[in-house]
């Protein structure tokens, strides 16, 4: 009996490990295939990410093969009249690339990280040149970290090699230029997700009983139970000088329009449910809001348990960068905290995650990790207390420096995914969501759908709001709300899309073909299997009608034909999908739209050999 139990346990472990290894390979494949989502290949985000700073320097005539440091050094220390315009042009190029902000090394070569060997006087002169150039382009300079300057507890040096990392952030001319970064907050129930957001956004500490989280709840039962059951939204604003936009009265929270008008950068938090009962809502929030980053909360006294593992697995499957925050360190015994840290390290280094945990100990770690966080391998780990405030300043600095890395294209046709619907008095029907591509203006004619029959409704946009502030235009990568003309609330729902009105009407599909990977399943999957499918904001039950092999197990990849059970949906080739049913999870990517039952999927080569 004991031998049989050990054998079953070993089989389950082997299957799980096979699924983990297959996940990391498949996630990279999905990222490559997503470029097929739009005609033309790479998106504007890809172009910006691949853009090398050396190209900027060469285009400005700053490159010198014989002395790689001399020209940039001369630019910072040379005559202001001659070098001022060139320095402004360099900073503008960097700021445009970073969507309104950039990190700049003063005293270090920005290409090969070699020191310029500045003395303190030369460093101050270079810093003055940077500040002057930034002021002329309506930007502010914030010094993040310094080296060899003899401040902040540094040891005095021989006076050479003085350098610093500064954040240069431009004040947006209007709300359309406001930099927005979306962060999804996940973790097990009672990990302190809502409390953490309350502490960050209200700029006050918690009392240990969840006082700061009350304002984040949307329903009465959430206040009574202390548990989030819906998708909550909260924002944290930073001005051009990197100061948090908040009220002068401790504990008072500013309205969204006040924060938006005074900010140069906004962090939009999506507070998701941690209880297993609300997993569908959490998965919808992770896929529908298109987060740039995922913040995984782990209670120090509980460790990575329950739904925390589920949420981490989903984030890894979606290939979204993850940062881990260990909370409640003020009430956790040291030996239990060490166990939690060891457990997180082991899980992050596992074959399924392939992450490099970076434990944040000081401000230098914060800045250096934030600079490299666009790399999918790095995972910063913070240890904080919402009651004593320990470690919170590191989180605030990290969010301030966090770069925008979204891959959105403003040059293609407009597409908007509906995440929520409202009926506002004296305004009418309002839909909110994320602009996936293109640009839209107030008054533009649009189509919204599909309805239960796959048809689209013709209407136009009455007005647009971002962060509860009216704006005339909205572009790819931004979250917004649209007031629609002559559309009733019951005619719209979550999961719909807003598209421009064209001569060729869009088509919704009941069936589609996808390439999938089974992450975990106890037995086998065959045709007629049903599961809950998530594609962006779409959440609907679907059934498998064809597979290019006889069956699928954990770790298997296959081409599968799906059919929606309720109504057709609007999909695009290259869309990521996630399907789940109980503990079964699968990841996939849409390969083609439509499916003809008279022409079944071509069988896999191995299946053909088995048949022969």
TrEMBL record:
A Pfam family of this chain: GTP_EFTU_D2
Superkingdom of the organism of origin: Eukaryota
Membrane-spanning segments: none
Nucleotide-binding as UniProt keyword: yes
InterPro entries given in the database record: EF-Tu_GTPase, EFTu-like_2, GTPBP1-like, P-loop_NTPase, T_Tr_GTP-bd_dom, Transl_B-barrel_sf, Transl_elong_EF1A/Init_IF2_C
Gene3D superfamilies xref list: P-loop containing nucleotide triphosphate hydrolases, Translation factors
Alphabetic keyword roster: Coiled coil, GTP-binding, Hydrolase, Nucleotide-binding
Record domain Tr-type G: where: 178-410
Keyword Cytoplasm listed: no
Coiled coil location: 113-140
Annotated GO MF terms: GTP binding; GTPase activity; translation elongation factor activity
Family as reported in the entry's similarity comment: Belongs to the TRAFAC class translation factor GTPase superfamily. Classic translation factor GTPase family. EF-Tu/EF-1A subfamily.
Name the record gives this protein: P-loop containing nucleoside triphosphate hydrolase protein
Species: Choiromyces venosus 120613-1
């Amino acid at each position: 009996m004991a031998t049989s139990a050990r054998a079953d346990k070993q089989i389950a472990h082997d299957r799980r490990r096979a699924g983990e290894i297959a996940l990391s390979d498949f996630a990279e494949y999905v990222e490559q295939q997503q470029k097929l989502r739009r005609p033309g290949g790479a998106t504007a985000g890809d172009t910006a990410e691949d853009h090398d700073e050396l190209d900027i320097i060469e285009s400005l005539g700053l490159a010198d093969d014989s002395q790689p440091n001399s020209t940039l050094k001369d630019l910072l220390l040379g005559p202001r009249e001659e070098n001022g315009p060139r320095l402004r042009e360099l900073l503008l190029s960097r700021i445009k690339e970073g969507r309104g902000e950039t990190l700049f090394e003063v005293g270090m070569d920005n290409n090969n990280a070699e020191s310029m060997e500045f003395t303190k006087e030369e460093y101050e002169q270079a810093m003055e040149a940077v500040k002057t150039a930034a002021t002329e382009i309506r930007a502010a300079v914030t010094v993040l970290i310094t080296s060899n300057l003899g401040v902040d507890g540094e040891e005095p040096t021989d006076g050479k090699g003085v350098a610093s990392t500064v954040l240069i952030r431009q004040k947006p001319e209007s709300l359309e230029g406001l930099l927005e970064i979306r962060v999804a907050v996940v973790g097990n129930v009672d990990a302190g997700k809502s409390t953490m957001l309350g502490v960050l956004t209200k700029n006050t500490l918690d009392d240990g009983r969840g006082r700061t989280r009350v304002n984040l709840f949307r329903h009465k039962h959430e206040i009574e139970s202390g548990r989030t059951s819906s998708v909550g939204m909260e924002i944290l604003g930073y001005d051009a000088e990197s100061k948090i936009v908040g009220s002068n009265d401790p504990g008072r929270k500013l309205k969204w329009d006040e924060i938006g008008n005074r900010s140069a950068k906004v962090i939009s938090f999506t507070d998701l449910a941690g209880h297993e009962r609300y997993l569908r809502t959490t998965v919808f929030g992770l896929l529908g809001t298109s987060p740039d980053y995922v913040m995984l909360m782990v209670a120090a006294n509980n460790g990575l348990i329950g739904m925390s593992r589920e949420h981490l697995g989903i984030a890894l499957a979606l290939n979204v960068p993850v940062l881990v925050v260990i909370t409640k360190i003020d009430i956790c015994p040291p030996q239990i905290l060490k166990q939690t840290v060891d457990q997180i390290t082991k899980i992050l280094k596992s074959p399924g995650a392939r992450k490099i945990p970076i434990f944040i100990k000081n401000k230098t770690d914060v800045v250096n990790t934030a600079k490299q966080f666009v790399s999918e391998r790095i995972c910063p780990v913070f240890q904080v207390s919402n009651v004593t405030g320990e470690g919170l300043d590191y989180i605030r600095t990290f969010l301030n420096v966090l770069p925008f890395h979204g891959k959105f294209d403003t040059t293609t046709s407009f597409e908007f995914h509906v995440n929520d619907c409202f009926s506002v008095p004296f305004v009418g029907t309002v839909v909110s969501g994320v602009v996936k591509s293109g640009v839209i203006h107030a008054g533009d004619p649009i189509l919204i759908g599909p309805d239960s029959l796959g048809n689209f409704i013709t209407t136009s946009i009455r007005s647009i709001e971002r962060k509860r502030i009216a704006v005339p235009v909205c572009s790819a990568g931004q979250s917004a709300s649209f007031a629609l003309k002559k559309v009733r609330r019951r005619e719209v729902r979550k999961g719909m899309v807003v598209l421009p009105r064209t001569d060729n009407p869009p088509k919704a599909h009941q069936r589609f073909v996808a390439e999938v990977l089974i992450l975990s399943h106890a037995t086998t999957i065959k045709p007629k299997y049903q599961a809950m499918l998530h594609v962006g904001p779409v959440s609907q039950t679907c059934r498998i009608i064809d597979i290019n092999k006889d069956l699928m197990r954990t770790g298997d990849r296959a081409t599968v034909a799906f059919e929606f059970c309720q109504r057709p949906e609007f999909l695009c080739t290259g869309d990521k999908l996630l399907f789940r049913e109980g503990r079964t999870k699968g990841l996939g990517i849409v390969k083609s739209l439509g499916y003809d039952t008279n022409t079944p999927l071509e069988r896999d080569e191995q299946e053909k050999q088995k048949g022969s």
